[in-house]
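Tokenise the fold.
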Amino acid sequence: MRKRRIPIPVVASIAAALLTSTAVAVALPAGAAVSGCSVAYAVSSQWPGGFGANVTVTNLGDPVTSWTLTWSYSAGQTVTQYWNATLTQSGAVVTAKNVSYNGSIATNGTASFGFNGSWSGSNPAPTAFALNGVACTGGTGTSPSASASASASTSASASPSSSATTSPSTGPIDIAVNSSTKYQTIDGFGAAVSIWGSAWSTAETQTLVGLGANQFGLSIVRTGISPVSSEWATQVSALKTAKSYGSGVKIMASPWTAPAAWKSNNSRTNGGKLLPEYYDDYANHLNSYVQYMRGQGVPIDVTSVQNEPDWHPDYDSMDWSGTELATWACAQGAKVQNTKLLVAEAVNLNYSYTDPTLNDACARNNIGYIGGHLYGTESAGRLGPYPLAAQYNKPVWMTEWNLHAADGSGSTIWGDPTNLAAWNETLDDIMRTVHRSMEANWSAYIWWYGKRFYSFIGDGEAAYGTTAGAPLKRGYAFSQYAKYVRPGYQRVAVTKSSKASPLEVTAYAGGGKLTLVILNRSTSAVNNAVIQAGQNITSAAHYLTSQTQSAASQPAAVNGSTVSVNVAARSISTVVLTL
């Protein structure tokens, strides 16, 4: 993190729009008696010049063992990245083929994949699909009952046929959860303690990691590794409190620099390379920190090799290339014990700093995570899935971002919980990027300082109008993810009706619950939104943060496998369904 960085304003993306659900025929193996399927094609997010989309195929006929789905674009859209399928494009025609683990689809089963694309002018949905060259028939080839099921799956509700048949709704479904289609496992949501300053107090730590009223449920705390070992004790108390008071809290430690004597510029600041003859000393330095903290009762779950290897400011910093990081990870990474290494926290998740490690089996085997910062990542087109990391099963963590452009470099707006400028930035920039990072299959989102005037709790600086330790609006908004989407939960698929198209929704399964986080960045409420869980709901809770409310409890009406909620305009909601 740059101590004096001027944040780059982020352009708010266009609200995600659900596109039409279209039936398509499945070409079955020779001798199969029944064929048919439906396809749900949904734009999960859209921004100027780019978009993300999810595609779910539901097989309505006999089981299939492999599939090839084709469609054509009518407005020049181009596929740029993909996951859970192999996509190729020739002109307007896109061909998606299954990968090794999702070729078989049972009767009434589904297969899903996603991709990012580019667009210009307009981004209409494909109007026709085909599997293995067989066009859509709107039903099955031989079975009237299967044909009726196919018709039901293409209703305005856009809910998968498996959800509709498991527990029918008495009315249209606006958001359908498909728990059988799974994405990334969530490691958590977090923030950093002060890297160069004082620690959080016990009460402040409890506010940030606790799960009670007016607490935010952070499950990751990031700290710095000083090059001076005598400074390591500064954060012990806060980190120990976080581990003991929070639920499943992970500690991540990031070094900004090695000791000056080990560097090419003989300085802690202004970058400078780690000299190769000190590679082993640096490994021992990181290991010593991990073992010291472990002895203090603070296990370090994740240790970064370097904070921002591509940024060389006039404060603690160190310069690496991607090749140098891979070389170090291969030769030295195994020496850092009782933790998992993360490579490498480049400013904008620049793949040139992580691809070399992922492509080197020796280096790759010594790391547990891939990490990067959000500064400039969206404009660089990398706020999306990282296929190489997914290929090698390395979770992607977003480990730092900081934005407070709304204050005009000095306003006291942060102490006013109803300030419109502060709320607009929180909803349209901060929470939108959390949503997009989840859709990108990233496993963690870590904000900059948890205690700061523009962050989750106030720091008491008079010029900015906050009270030290007091919860802030941005903390309540972030808690809509952090407090209810817990480590180990797994993101699952959702589909939406046209009524719910203004809503940006992700869903998670875990702990006997389905948890949905819903952003409504439009200026209109979506009332009586019906959510279908796919199985009976025992109870439901709904919490909402807006310009005027802070994690406030809202009504939620349960009816069998569905729940109805009102989603206020310009708000973020969490709906927790106990099954």
In short: The radius of gyration is 24 Å. Confidence is low (pLDDT under 50) at residues 1-33, 142-170.
